[in-house]
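Quick question: what would this complex look like in 3D?
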Amino acid sequence: MSTSSPIHVGAVLFDGFELLDFYGPLEMFGLLEGEAKITVVAEKPGQVRSSGGPCGVAEAAMAGSGGFDVLLIPGGIGTRKAMLNPQFLAELTRLAEASQIVATVCTGSFLLARTGLLDRRKATSNKRVFQLVKSSAPKVEWMAKARWVEDGKYFTSSGVSAGMDMTLAVIAKLCGREKSLQIASRAEYEWHEDSSWDPFAAAWY
Amino acid sequence: MSTSSPIHVGAVLFDGFELLDFYGPLEMFGLLEGEAKITVVAEKPGQVRSSGGPCGVAEAAMAGSGGFDVLLIPGGIGTRKAMLNPQFLAELTRLAEASQIVATVCTGSFLLARTGLLDRRKATSNKRVFQLVKSSAPKVEWMAKARWVEDGKYFTSSGVSAGMDMTLAVIAKLCGREKSLQIASRAEYEWHEDSSWDPFAAAWY
């Protein structure tokens, strides 16, 4: 893997994204300060409404963007509509193929699965809709108990807050574990460093 | 305390706010779905840049807003500039006085302390700059080891991710503990329900 310096993070927005899926990981990348640069992209630039209400802002169109060092794909109720949009899916596929690392949170894994890029790969998603995700994308080797899963360049995480733990694992891969520990401490965040930690798997089965 | 239905959350943005201070709590309020309504306010409506880079969006001006059921004040490097802005501080004071609950995250506590409203109250803030906060606002009874502190209508939390634990405590107060447990489970978030849990106090002393 060859990443640029600073690490260029591309973060994908769509209507109905889940706030913490998106901003939890971006908080961690943001704490890399000069070592990372974040670009928020969407189908078109401008304001994009979250499922919770508040809007995010896309600075650039997906179509005008090249690959990133890390491509972040959040989940949220809006994934259901986004995965039925052929133009969005085509751009997502192109960006995922052109990026060094692709990291998905919650039902963002389900969205990425629709591109076919997770076929025959290990992946996880949130646990509340796990059976639906599993039956809808049967070529993916879905892991029922995992905070996050790394398979090749793909990092996929469980629901919502799991994206922060996964992101610290991505940062550890790119910048070393010590950097992730520093960032977790600055965010006063208790990093679940063990990717098999997943009490929520039991809660929903 | 008398809150409206749905619970009206006012969330304050300023340049250089910390992403997770803001969107972590808003994720939790957002999961109340129809039971809460979020309005993002700032000195003027429009895009507001975070310390990490991505912009948030304020829908309304603070000056045009009345009090809220919950007023959320994030922290971030931008608090240093915001606390030197008399017009911003005047509006923050007015909104805090008119709101039923005021909840601050990280250096958002320091910002609120500048209004004088935390004088002679117990409060906490993030631990990395705790000594600075303590010496700069000596009339506040700063608690060195606390994930969050509740004193009257004021909830103040430790750094960044502590805002989520505090918000679940606010929701428990307004809607009952069962609701907070449901929301934490939906967000696959391990709620630190004990407000005295604070390993980060030791890390910085």
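Answer marked as accepted. The mean pLDDT of chain A is 95.
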